[in-house]
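Notebook entry, structure prediction.
Reason for the run: the old model in the group folder had no record of what sequence produced it. Starting over properly, with the input documented here first.
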Amino acid sequence: MNTLARNVHAAVRSLSCAVRRAWPVAVVTASLAAGAVSAAPLEACRLDAIDGTIERPLQLAPGTRWTYSMGPDHPVSSLRLDGMTERLTRLAVGDGVARVEHTDTYADVNPLRQGRKEILRFPLAVGAAWNDAFAEPGAVVGANGTYRYDYEEEASSRVVGMETINIGIGSVRAYRIERRARWRKSNPTSDDMTGRRWQGRSAVEGLEHSVSWYAPAVGRVVLKRSITAHPSYALHLQEAGSSRHAIVTELVAFESPGGCRVEVEPVHAQRFADRRPLHYPLVFSDTWEFLLQRDPHIPERADPAA
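New structure, fully documented this time:
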């Protein structure tokens, strides 16, 4: 067995053992939906029976479910696997909104995108690095109406190592992936935001630094820390892995049909409502600059099957 295969097998075994140790008679008290989840013992986890490599993602069973938290003051987000091939992964988000991803890059399928977005790249190994660049239209629906804009992003990613992280589901061995992106929003337009006189700069640039921990046994990232800032703040930007300004998304529930099922309280998840991207204007104004820096990028959608 080569080194990478041994690392993957160790990661799978570590996650399985940690979950069993931490939750022999688990009682779930987190509010993972509209109300508290009832007490439930951990079902049999057989993640150590999954044997594979990181040449390509593991083929998981339809019905596999992941639930993520961004902190106790925010609703959780759930993904259910509807189907998976070597090319495409089909998911249902929340109450059933369809999402289609490229299996080999972890990026959503968007026919309106030009270029290539790569959150992961397989084969996945410590030391692997890649660059990606893409452009696509964005669309934000807000209380004052809908506006559209052009979005561009260039990023570099690197797998810096294998780490053991302690999260709600236990001690997990995962690949640490660091990504540094520079983005630009420009040319905003709106037909229905007539209540205010939006003016000023029509282009905004920014940086996003993120650290993601990808666990092969779970088939997705189990923890992500990200931080956004104005480019002029680059020299002062703390690492996303330790900054108190980071938005932290954490896996709090995982279920494999006929196998593992665990639901826990978040340990690291956080997103502060009043914490905007660093070094941008903090006072509300009738300017495009304010809207473009405040609102996270949301791709304009088209039918992925078209």
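Summary: The CA atoms of residues 19 and 170 lie 5 Å apart.
The old model has been moved to the deprecated folder.
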